[in-house]
Amino acid sequence: VAAGTTISWSTDGSVTRAGFIICSGGVATSAPSRAPTRVPTRPSPPANAYFAVTAANPSANTCYTTTSGSCFTDGPGSHANRETCTIRVLRSTILRVTQFQTESCCDRLTVNGRTYSGNTGPVNVAVAAGTTISWRTDYSITYAGFIICSGGGVTAAPVTASPITAAPETAAPVTAAPVTAAPVTAAPITAAPGAPVGAPVTATPVTASPVTASPVTAAPVTASPITAAPITTAPITAAPATAAPD
Fold it and tell me: Which of 103, 157, 210, 237 measures 20 to 30 Å from 114, CA to CA?
């Protein structure tokens, strides 16, 4: 260890052991060298694979696929502490759980936003292509882990929409009520008494007020044509003038 660096120690909330005693082995003449860490390269999944591991920590023996990408597992034997990995679903499928044993409180597999732990795995859960499955463990107590495989492809049932037919709409015909003007009759004209026979009699002209029907306007609908009844005014006839005899 180099001068100026620190060493940290922490414990959790359960299970105690003897602990440790660490001493100096002497003064180092140079800083210890560290061999470069080799990160293994994960091969590309085959064309017919259902799953691919896209991230894993620690990278060695943590989460990989088997049987040509049809299954994925946390690794051989018991899983490790502080494991994390991400599995991408390449083809939509139903999950078939072959093995599932994790610490119920703290080691979780997350599928479609739901977490699974203990002995309860994602049995017969449908996953869609492009989604991801995540796995993480805490820092103590390990179990056998999981092996999860594809239960086969998922085919969506065809969806047929029922035809929608709009009911025909027919507007009721609009007919304007006929407008009839009341007949206008002039009163008879009689010459004044004492007037000489043959005197001219002048009748006061009688003028009928014009009769105007209010216009009828139908709303714009597709209906029978609107026909207004003709308006007929009765003729105005003056009674003959008769002179009274002397």
Answer: 157
